[in-house]
């Protein structure tokens, strides 16, 4: 998809090549990868709701892990994929591997659990389109966009912990959420942190713990000396 974001720095992001495949993980779970453009695009391969529907109709697994890395695309294709996943009988676990922007962020909201990878991002924005014709034609397009934006916010509000007016403003502003910010706003349930060593100790915490131990030891020694002196007196 040709990127046209309000925040210009994101227009230089690298292209995401299409990867669309499903595979069994074990007898109880499967994985679906959705990388690339959502809906028909003039700029390369794309993934449609029909593609997803063909995969889902044959899935009998109890848990479906859906991995997303996409700048988005067609809003109606995104909403259709959201509903396909939302209505599937399997438990849907969404993994945001890189970015879930625009229509892809709508798909991400379908998860029973949503897990964001470290450094991943979610982006929300208003629907946009091209329009031509007279003022009546333009007004019809405007009315359509207003309705689409309401539907978009409806989906985000199934997860967002703030007020609807706040979500509407986030959408209007084209807002990019880091994984930690998305967690705080309720848009994801968990952020993976595979790069962090669980056994690693913060240097300052370690230093302070040693200081406290040494100070306690010295205080105890001083008390022992004082008590011994008192007994002798």
What does this entry look like structurally?
This protein is α/β, with parallel strands linked by helices and 233 residues long. It folds into 2 domains: 8-191, 2-enoyl-CoA Hydratase, Chain A, domain 1, CATH 3.90.226.10; 201-233. It is built from 7 helices and 10 strands. The chain has helices at residues 49-56, 75-86, 103-108, 135-156, 164-173, 179-184, 203-232, and strands at residues 19-26, 29-35, 37-38, 46-47, 63-70, 91-101, 113-116, 121-124, 175-178, 190-191. Strands 1, 2, 5, 6, 7, 8, 9 and 10 form an 8-stranded mixed β-sheet that branches. Helix 1 runs parallel beside helix 2 and helix 4 (135-156) packs across helix 5. It is elongated and about 105 Å long. The mean pLDDT is 84.
- Element order, helices and strands? EEEEHEHEHEEHHEHEH
Please outline the major beta sheet.
8 strands, mixed
Cα(first) to Cα(last) distance is: 89 Å
Helical residues, percent: 40-55%
Q: What is the CATH domain class of the largest domain?
A: Alpha Beta
* Total domains: 2
Anisotropy-based shape: elongated
Number of helices: 7
Uncertain residue ranges: none
The fraction of residues in strands falls at 15-25%
How would you classify the helix and strand content by structural class? alpha/beta
**Quick one: CATH superfamily of the largest domain?**
2-enoyl-CoA Hydratase, Chain A, domain 1
- CATH 2nd-level architecture of the largest domain: Alpha-Beta Complex
Radius of gyration of CA atoms, rounded to a whole number: 26 Å
**Kindly state the mean pLDDT as a whole number?**
84
CATH topology of the largest domain: 2-enoyl-CoA Hydratase, Chain A, domain 1
Count the beta strands.
10
């Amino acid at each position: 998809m040709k990127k046209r974001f309000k925040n210009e720095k994101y227009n230089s992001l690298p292209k995401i090549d299409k990867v669309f495949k499903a595979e069994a993980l074990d007898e109880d779970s499967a994985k679906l990868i959705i990388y690339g453009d959502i809906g028909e695009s003039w700029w390369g391969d794309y993934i449609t709701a029909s593609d997803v529907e063909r995969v889902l109709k044959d899935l009998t697994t109890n848990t479906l892990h859906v991995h997303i890395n996409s700048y988005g695309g067609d809003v109606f294709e995104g909403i259709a994929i959201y509903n396909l996943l939302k209505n599937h009988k399997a438990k849907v676990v969404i993994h945001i591997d890189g970015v879930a922007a625009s229509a892809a962020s709508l798909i991400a909201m379908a998860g029973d659990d949503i897990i964001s990878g470290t450094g991943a991002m979610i982006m929300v924005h208003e629907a946009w389109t091209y329009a031509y014709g007279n003022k009546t034609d333009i007004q019809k397009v405007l009315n359509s966009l207003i309705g689409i934006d309401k539907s978009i916010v409806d989906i985000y509000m199934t997860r967002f912990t703030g007020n609807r007016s706040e979500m509407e403003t986030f959408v209007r502003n084209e807002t990019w959420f880091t994984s930690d910010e998305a967690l705080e706003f309720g848009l994801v349930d968990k952020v993976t942190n595979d790069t962090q060593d669980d056994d690693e100790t913060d240097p300052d915490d370690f230093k302070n713990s040693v200081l406290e131990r040494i100070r306690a030891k010295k205080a105890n020694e001083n008390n022992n000396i004082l008590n011994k002196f008192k007994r002798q007196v």
